[in-house]
């Protein structure tokens, strides 16, 4: 299955979220993870994380990175790398602690959509 631009960006967001969690203790909120990515990521710039767009259809403002990031987190939960009881505080599972980020994503990850 070939990856499109969205899949590649989502994969980058998943890896960055896993890196943050592995580095900072393994239990954080989505907002804390996003903030850490914004401040310390070599993959996503502050401008990418903070970008605000206006919908052509409705005129509403939105943050494209938040959509990308939240979808990536959902995949990490579905695939067993993150666990959460309240969908607010995320925690690394054993799989999340030991995953080799150089070989991520593992086979089958894109079938979790």
In words, what does this structure look like?
With 113 residues, the chain is mainly alpha-helical. 49% of the residues lie in helices and 12% in strands. It has five helices and five strands; from the N terminus they run αβααββαββα. The strands form two sheets. A three-stranded antiparallel sheet has the order 1-5-4. Helix 1 (5-23) crosses helix 2. The longest helix has 19 residues, at 5-23. The radius of gyration is 14 Å and the shape is globular.
Low-pLDDT runs of 5+ residues are 107-113
How many strand units?
5
**Main β sheet profile:** 3 strands, antiparallel
Q: What would the principal axes of the Cα set say about the shape?
A: globular
> Strand portion, in percent?
5-15%
Physical arrangement of strands within the biggest beta sheet: 1-5-4
Measure the end-to-end span. 13 Å
Structural class estimated from helices and strands = mainly alpha
Using only CA atoms, what is the Rg?
A: 14 Å
Can you give the helix content as a percent range?
40-55%
Succession of helices and strands: HEHHEEHEEH
Mean pLDDT: 89
């Amino acid at each position: 299955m070939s990856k499109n631009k969205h899949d590649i960006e989502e994969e980058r967001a998943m890896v960055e979220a896993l890196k943050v969690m592995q580095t900072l203790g393994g239990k954080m909120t989505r907002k804390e993870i996003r903030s850490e990515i914004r401040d310390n990521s070599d993959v996503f710039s502050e401008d990418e994380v903070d970008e605000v767009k206006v919908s052509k259809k409705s005129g509403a403002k939105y943050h494209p990175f938040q959509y990308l990031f939240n979808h990536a987190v959902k995949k990490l939960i579905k695939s067993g790398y993150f666990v959460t009881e309240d969908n607010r505080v995320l925690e690394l599972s054993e799989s999340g602690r030991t995953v080799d980020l150089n070989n991520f994503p593992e086979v089958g990850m894109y079938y979790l959509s």
